[in-house]
Amino acid sequence: MIQKTLKQLAEIIKIDNDISKFQQTMISGICIDSRKLEKGNLFVPLKGENVDGHKFVEAAIKNGAAAALWQKDMPNPPLHLPLLIVEDTLLAIQQLARSYRKQLNIKVIGITGSNGKTTTKDMTAHLLSLKYKVQKTEGNYNNHLGLPLTILQLREDTEFAVLEMGMNHPGEIDFLTKLALPDAVVITNIGESHLENLGSRAGIAAAKLEIMNGLQDNGLVVYYGDELLLKEYFDQYYGNAVVKTFGREKSNDLFPNDMEQGEKGNYFSINKQEGNFYLPVLGIHNVLNALAAMQVAHHFHIPFAIMNEGFAHLKLTGMRMELVKGAKGEKIINDAYNASPTSMKAAFELIESMKGYKRKIVVLGDILELGTETEAYHEAIGNLLDPDQIDYVFTYGKLGEKIADGAKKSFPANRLFSFLEKEVLITELKARTTGDEIILVKASRAMKLEQVVDALTK
To answer: Using one digit for the tens of pLDDT, what is the confidence trace for 378-434?
Structure first.
């Protein structure tokens, strides 16, 4: 993690106060939450909608922070403490991260995409760790604040950093990639998320392709070759990057020969290596995420032959195809972290393929940021539900009602339920579970459907 004296920090970021009294004070690491403070940290207060971190500066230093930043427009800075007064504390974090990244002798892998980027990040980190010291984005720290904080926590002996890059608007990936300066980039796919801000799938593709703007000379590009919007771009690409594709089609550099869904994961084989691989993650679509990770790892001299070793110890970030056991013995697929029409379809294919259950139930909620066609997308999702494969459909939220409207065309009323109150949904769902079910729970993050999962486990 970053370790600097206040004098060295002042050479990186512009400060507006005299620090001569404290210039040899050493900081180790950055903290923005006083509850997670570690001794020696630089505490960085941020102005949020509900909480202003400046209120905690004095307590943070008292509790072990070596120093703190202070935003210039905030009154009454405690100048008797080791303080750096800056124009903007968020901007200061970004400037420090940019400087620290250039200081590190490290390979950076940047990962973006509409779906699967967190899972691909986790897989890539596990495969690279077979040979190297690896750190990765923790949780969903993938934006203009999270990515700089991740960089500032990198250890100097780390050899690879696997960094997730998310966005809602044009220009955001451009900022992140120019800060991270990746040696390899992955684009997992192009879906429908953020249509509200980007207008079309072509607009989403253009925003994801901004990741190329920070790629280092002779770097690696791995992209989903079955996506025409990406293929069209790279067919016209004349840069010096090494370009590799993955996907289902045999025209890709890496593709699966066979894929089989197991009880808790997937078996598959590839065109580049004899033998089978086992991925302990549900969903055939996750085999494609694994292929992307395998392409990166192989480029950096990890043999395909040993990659099962990396998959065997794979642990994914929570609420992504997470198999949970309910209180009655029912199995729950907790995929409540996020959703899009594309990932909904993949989740339906998964639950339909799972054998050995007397009943199959889906609990679905609103998908956000889909733009002007939001209601049509939700109805289309309802149309995808097959009453011969799914026994009960539960929806939650205003847009969830549109999913139910789409499902009404094929589902009888006694198998289709729509709710605006989560507690009522939970009560009705519990009344219909006996322990022999597999239940899929999926929606956009803001719907907090993990609360349904939690209720079923109690």
So the answer is: 999 999 999 999 999 999 999 999 999 999 989 999 999 999 999 999 999 999 999
Type of residue numbered 450: E
Enumerate the known binding-site residues: 113-119
DSSP tag of 69 = E
Joined together, the tokens standing for residue 186 give: 């992955």
The CATH code for residues 3-86 is 3.40.1390.10
What is the C-alpha separation between 68 and 30, in angstroms, rounded?
Answer: 9
CATH topology assigned to domain 104-312: UDP-N-acetylmuramoyl-L-alanine:D-glutamate ligase (3.40.1190)
Distance CA 109, CA 183 (A): 6
Q: What CA–CA distance (Å, rounded) separates 227 from 208?
A: 13
Which residue ranges make up the annotated binding site for ATP? 113-119
Q: How far apart are the first and last CA of the chain?
A: 40
- Closest Cα to residue 367, out of 333, 396, 409, 405? 396
Compute the C-alpha angle 423/429/432, nearest 5°: 150
- H-helix segments, 385-417: 398-407
Record the tokens describing residue 437, joined without a space. 């079910």
Instruction: Report pLDDT digits (tens) over 10-29.
Output: 999 999 999 999 999 999 99
* Phi, psi (degrees; rounded to nearest 5) at 195: -60, -30
Q: What is this structure's pTM? A: 0.85
